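Researcher: Hi, I'm a grad student and pretty new to this. My advisor asked me to get structures for two proteins we've been looking at. I'm not sure of the right format, so I'll just paste the first sequence and hope you can take it from there.
Model: That works fine. Here's the first sequence with its structure tokens right after it:
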Amino acid sequence: MLVRDWMTKDVVSVDDDTPIMKAGALMREKRIRFLPVVNKHGSLTGVLTDRDLKAASPSCATSLDVYELNYLLSNVKAGEIMTRDPVIVKQDETIEFAAALLLDNKISGLPVVDAGLKLVGVITQSDVFKTLVKITGTLVGGVQFAFHLDDRPGSLKEVADEIRRLGGRIVSVLTHYPESGDKFREVYLRIMHVPADQLENMKKELGAKFRILYVVEDFAEEVKRRKKR
């Protein structure tokens, strides 16, 4: 899964000479937390965050009046306060790698660049969440089986073959390696919904051959029901 296939391509950006008052108004209007800053060639030179804007604003204890403040801020440009050399991700890197960069740097979004460092998009936490929901088939609903398996070649195939034999249709597969260092892994298989009696039989037969951590049914309708209006 490459970043270029999941990023937001309609990028809102500013140039180095954009006044920070205008940049701040744009961020509020678009409800975004950072703006990529580009030069006249479209190459990334930095990012402007809400934190940068707050740091550049005079203290509320200043003796300047509102007109002096507006004049002062109108003369400050994005290029003067932006974060230079920001964390970036390339469009041909994976969405998982982008998620790791977001997590490790404790940031909400990343500029996406091509091989020449030209800005081509942005990837945000929301984009990563959308990717996770789509690739796992969560909105399709279904049943998720969690297994504790030996970390050896063929262990996943054995489970998948057994699920298919029992009439299950696999939607997605995820794997997690516990940090304990034990030679086991946790595998999460989502299958399409099956009738209750068939599901009970699957639990019984799979449980006799493999260690099941849990079995949970998800219903797509429940996501809509819990949505805040």
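Researcher: Oh nice, that was easy. Here's the second one.
Model: And its structure:
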Amino acid sequence: MCKNHVFAYLTVIGLLCSVDVMGQADVSGWKEEGHIYAKVYDAALRGNKLGNTTLYQIVHQNPTILALVFTRCTGICSPFLMQLKEKLESERDNKKFNIVVISFDPRDTKKDMYLYAKNFGLDDDKRWVFAVTDSIQHLSQSIGFDPVWDSTRQQYDHEAILVGINTEGYITKKLLGLRSEHELALLIGSINNIFSPSYRIPNKNLLFSCFNYNAKTGKNMPGLGLVFIALPAIITLLILLSISYFVRSSRM
């Protein structure tokens, strides 16, 4: 009977762990963790302010906020950029950074992006760069962005995405959707090498965490902490098995 209880206990622990992982994978917060601390793809860019430039050349000059949009969007893109412009006004004098807006629509041209910037009054703002690239697929994959084309509406189904990139080209933080000034400030802090409480910095000394983030795969993997959670049940099971073995041996 005792062994049955122990097995039931272990089963419940396993189910709870698997449900917890699956549940987290369904929320946007889990998606925001993907590709953190990985390098962004160094895409070649074309824009009115640019010559032969790559994303890394901009990033190496200043920390960068990357936004992906398309000019024909009838949904989130324009409100998203308008909100971003307004909220960044308060950060203008605090920290140095660039904002790079790249179209993920192959139909967009350098001129389309210039006119798009002009509509927001950002064509003369030196911090803002509006560009197109022939490497949008590689760039999107490197940040975990996956827009879906809807042929009926002739529109992309996509999330509003902001990506924080430090001067070494590493993704420090991602935000999905329209966000608060506080969350935007955390992103700006992260690209300026200020610790963000949203994500734990990988550390080899953190041996007993339940999950460890793998920057290469962009996934959380089970850690030693899960073993220690189940350790009391495992010890109990071993004790019961030992007692059962000695009882059987004494009867023989």
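Researcher: Is there anything I should tell my advisor about the second?
Model: You could mention this: The CA atoms of residues 52 and 129 lie 14 Å apart.
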